[in-house]
Amino acid sequence: MVELAALQQRLGYTFRDESLLRLALTHPSIAHEQNNPTPHNQRLEFLGDSVLGVVLTRELYKKFPDADEGVLTKSRAKLVNSQSLSEHGRALGLGAHLILSRGEENTGGRERASTLADAFESLLGAIFLDGGFEAAHGFVLREFSAKFGELGGLPGIENPKGELQELLQSRSTNAPEYQLVSASGADHDRDFECAVLHDGAELARGRGKSKKAAESDAALAALKKLRETS
Asked: CA-to-CA distance for 211 and 190, rounded, in angstroms?
């Protein structure tokens, strides 16, 4: 089919068995509409999800040799969330090639984010079955190379206090404590300095325009120090 040839050109991969590609594009609604066990892409989606996890985990492991398990897990989650995968599916134009039921078609299924994300994972599963791990690996790297570049260094920490508590409580039953060291400046422009302590020892200090911000800054400094010395 001309349409599938154009799609495969965008994928950078040509299927030996095009029936796998068609299956990856077949939405489960087809089986429900026809009320019979028509093959659809959910099994391929399950396979593709696992392959994607393996490939990205390996690449993150190599890219961030100093990152711990928690940071690597959060990085992978950012790459494989539904929004990210739906963007990949949309960029590849998968919506136009989906095989949908009439009901799914009429309710905007071709542009539905969850459907595009599922189709992307199904497509990866199909590539894995058709061409093996190296073919799937190459496809993932082509698709995610830009996002790997966006990650740059270590991913940002969104909840320093929570992550510090999680890290410390993996080593001790005691939670970190925060103490206000100083507060200065005019009422409308205050500067706070806080220290974070664990088991009576000061780990780090931080500054901010509120006590909460200073505690967060202290937690971030403590995390960086602990990871450098671990």
From this structure: 9
Return per-residue pLDDT of the chain as tens, 230 residues. Answer: 447 899 999 999 999 999 999 999 999 888 776 666 789 999 999 999 999 999 999 988 888 777 777 778 878 888 888 888 999 999 999 999 999 888 888 888 898 999 999 999 999 999 999 999 999 999 999 998 877 765 655 555 567 888 888 888 877 788 899 999 999 988 877 889 999 999 889 999 999 888 988 898 899 889 888 877 65
The residues that are catalytic are 49, 121
Tokens of 213: 């911000």
Domains of the chain: 2-151 (1.10.1520.10), 160-229 (3.30.160.20)
- The whole-model pTM stands at 0.66
Which residues touch 55 (CB under 8 Å, ≥6 apart)?
A: 136, 137, 140, 141
Distance CA 53, CA 80 (A): 8
**Residues 136/51, Cβ–Cβ less than 8 Å:** yes
For residue 185, give Cα distances in angstroms to 189, 191, 209: 6, 6, 10
